[in-house]
Amino acid sequence: MLQTKKNLTIHSQVSYHLMMLPGMFFLILFNYVPMVGIIMAFQDFVPSKGLWGSNFVGLKHFIYMVQLPDIAKVIRNTLIISIGKILLGTFMAIAFSILLNEIRLKFFKKTVQTIVYLPHFLSWVVLAAVVMNMFNLDGPINQFIASIGMQKINFLGSNKTFQSLLITTDVWKEFGYNSIVYLAAITTIDPGLHEAAAIDGASWWKRVWHVTLPGMLPIITLMAAMSLTGILSAGFDQVYNLYSPIVYETGDTLDTYVYRIGLVGRQYSFGSAVGLCRSLVGTILLLTSNWLAKKLTDRKIF
Length: 302
Known about the structure:
Blueprint: H1 2-32, E1 43-44, E2 55-56, H2 60-67, H3 69-101, H4 106-117, H5 124-135, H6 140-147, H7 162-187, H8 191-199, H9 204-227, H10 236-242, H11 248-251, H12 254-264, H13 268-297
Antiparallel strand pairs: 1-2
Helix pairs in contact: 2-13, 3-7, 3-9, 5-10, 7-9, 8-9, 9-13, 12-13
């Protein structure tokens, strides 16, 4: 009897596994097959000789990477931009979800959600043109600054403002979509807790601080742990479409550095070495975040 039920269960799941096959095929094709190129990090790769004909040089490119004066600056830029996006983005997503939950008019609530979620679905290829038009020296932002008697700011060409521009525009693009998880967490909080707090005379802010935020804490901790995995990825598509040689000092990240050195500069082996180090650190952070999520929230990422 048990064997029959087991066979029926397996048979009923075959269709779901078949549906997964196309996705798994493309995942393996585009994510795992290219990992053969890791070999280039240990070679003086020459395209005409191929992977199996190029000279093996061991850790030469890794040693060269550590000795480069630019690599520390690139890592610093990546960390500043990534951490800034994570902290400000998390704060904005939590704040927006709490405020959105207070809206009682369904039509207005759905309208606000649609407007705020929309930028997430637009490519940075499109949004970069919008940001550049808004923040260039003749754009509406600088025209407003000039109209109140202040000096215009070169947002896109100044090393003092470029990182802030990257962080704020990315948060504007993503915080609405990221708030979905926190909004779902709020709906799981027992309304009776809010009613009891209101009866005891607690203000709205105190109810948020002592009821809503503690109820959201497991999800906040889990999302924060998951965000650690992308701390060395500051958003290649955004940075690449907005930066220029003028702001390389503060805008060049590991992803753009690998692209310029490895592909544009045709230093394939060196680019592979930098990319491999970044991937190894990302893997360590992924395992660390999984451990932290399990320890702090009793929920595992995988």
